[in-house]
Amino acid sequence: MYKIMIKTGQKHYPVYLGKGIMESVGSVVSRHLSARPVLIVCDKNVSSLYAKKCLESLRREGFKPHLEILEGGERGKTLEAAANLYTRALELGLDRHSAVIALGGGVTGDLVGFFAATYLRGLPFVQVPTTLLAMVDSSVGGKVAVNHPLGKNLIGAFHQPALVISDIHTLETLPPREFNAGWAELIKYGVVCSKKLFKRLELLNNNLSRGRLGKGFKVIGAHKLMNLIIRAVSIKGAIVCRDEKEENLRRVLNFGHTFGHALEAATHYGHYLHGEAVAGGMIMATELALRLKQIDEPSGRRIKALLENIERPPTPGGLTVEAVAGALSYDKKRKKEELVFVLPCRLGKAVFCKNPSFHLVEKVIEEFLPGKHS
Ligand SMILES: NC(=O)c1ccc[n+]([C@@H]2O[C@H](COP(=O)([O-])OP(=O)(O)OC[C@H]3O[C@@H](n4cnc5c(N)ncnc54)[C@H](O)[C@@H]3O)[C@@H](O)[C@H]2O)c1
What pTM was computed for the model? Predict the structure, then answer.
C-alpha cells in the first residue's frame, strides 16, 4: 500500500493507494479513528459493487457501520440530499464521536463532505473514491459542496477528510465514459503542473487508438495507472499544502473550468459529464492561449491533440455560441465583472488571464462547436 501525506493548515492526513485494498478499509480506518458508529454513504451503482466489502471490513474491526444509499448523479448533489443525510444521522443518533465514509465518485464525495462539514459543526469523514476523477482530484484537498439551482458547487466549505483510501482495482468496473472523464483531469495536471506527466500521458496516448482509452484499466494496467494516480495526488497535495483555500496557486487547477462550467450550464448539467465538459473547456482554453500567443504553436497543438483523443458525446444540435457565451457572462457578473481563464503558457506551466477580449472568447467557442463556424 502506497501512502502520500497531505499537509494543510487545517489538517495533515494520509492518502492510501493500493490494489485490492477495499477489504482493508476497516483496518486502515481503525489506525486513524477509534471504533465508533460510522455512516457509509454511496450511490446505487457503487452500493451493489462495493458496499458489502466495505461494511464487512469495518465490522471486522469493531465499527458499527450503517449504510445510506443515494440516488446518485450530479442532479442529486443538492441541499435537499444533504438535509436527508442530516435526518438519517439524527435518527441514528450520530454525534461528534461518529464518522462518515464517502464511498464512490466525486458526487458522493462532495455531498458527503459537505454533510460532514456542517452536521454538528463538523464530523470526521473518510473519502473512499471509486472513480478515476475522484482518485486524482475530488477526494483530496477538502473542497466540499452541493449545487444550487443557479449554479454548481455554490454552497460549500473547506473540510479536509481524516484520510483517503483509493483501491485502484475498483476502476476495473468503471464504465468507459467515466474513465475518460477522469482521464481529462489527469491530463489537466500534466498541462498546468508537470511536463514530465504530460509527456508520459502523451506517450501512452500515442500507443492507444481512439476509443481504447475508455477500457483504461485493462489497456493501461493497474500498475501504470496507480503510478499516474500517485503522481496526480502528489501534485495536488503539494499545491493544496501551499494554498489550501484556493486564494492563489490552487486556482491553476481550474484550467478548463471557466469554459467547462459554461458548457455544463448551457446544457443544463445533463449532457456532459463533469470531466467531459472540463476536457472541452481545456481545448477552448488552449485555443485561447494560442490566439493570445501565450503559448507556442507546437506546444498548444500537442495539448489539444492529447485532449481531443478523449471521447466526448456529440455537441447537442441546439447548443449555440450565444448560450455558452451567455453562461460565461453570468459567471462574470457573479465574480464582479472578472472573468479569469487559466491558460497554458508552456508544457507544465500556466498563467492567469483576466478579462480577455470577449469577441475572441466567442470566436474560440465558435470554433469548438461543430457546424458553428462562420
Ligand atoms: N471537490 C473537488 O475538488 C472536485 C474536483 C473535481 C470534481 N468534483 C466534482 O466531482 C463530481 C464528478 O465526480 P465523478 O465523475 O466521480 O461522478 P460520480 O460520483 O457521479 O460517479 C460517476 C458514475 O460512476 C459510478 N461509479 C462510481 N464508481 C464506480 C465504479 N468503481 N464502478 C462502476 N461505477 C462506478 C457512479 O455510480 C456514477 O454513476 C462533480 O460533481 C464535480 O463537481 C469535485
Answer: 0.95
